[in-house]
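Quick start: read one record
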Amino acid sequence: MSVGYHIVVCGSLVPDPLQTLEPVETPSGPGLRNEAMLPAVLDPWAAHALYEAANLAKDTPDSRVWLVSLGPKAKLQQLMMSVAQKAPFDLVALDGSAGGFTDAHETANALADAIQQIEGLDHTRLLLFGGWASASRDAGVTLHMVGERLGIHDQFAGVDQLNPLPDGSFTVKERIEGGQYQVSRCAGPPALLAWATGNLPEPPNNPQVGMANMRGVMPALQRSKPVAITVGDVAFGKVESPKQRRDTRVVKDVPPEDIARELAEWVRG
């Protein structure tokens, strides 16, 4: 294609999944115990989208990548110290709640408004990237509502691969049921791609990329606008963590055939 892509990645922070996450009721609604103190990471699904976006931009001249991120400003600043070393991007920051109980509609509206205000963004070259769900709530609807607000009707979910073609179109490989893939051909941007894991590993830290990114990250954080994101009209009757179950039995001198038979019987129930 003669011109590159304008890739906007929607990705926010989530509590580190290695921490103990205990749902509690707070004065402002449901939340996590000591949520403000929990270390945060970039949402793993959105991280895959960011790495794929950076790789696509690297291979397609005249392309740009923006990362639009909604979260508490202080935590976003901490997060960017590591994320900024992974891939080149321009940050668009929104200062608001990134909790797993927030209303997806309000979040989508805030993200769409921020994207529409990106200076120099060409809608005809726009690829909207993000995770196909968040690791905090797993609603799987926010990115698609952003796409609808932006008038993007070519939408793909569970994407693992995008292959640009010489005529400006591209093919998209989406996960479907039964471990199968669906391959579609899209005429070109604008399009929305909600990524699964993609095919790229997490890139190593690159201090040079980090230094270049941080020149824009800090001003972007200073310009971040506060947005009021609530739980909306959703009422949570009960929230609890899955109960851990571990039954351990130590046995010795049991033939492999007997172990396999016992496991098969356990699986059958």
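The mean pLDDT is 90.
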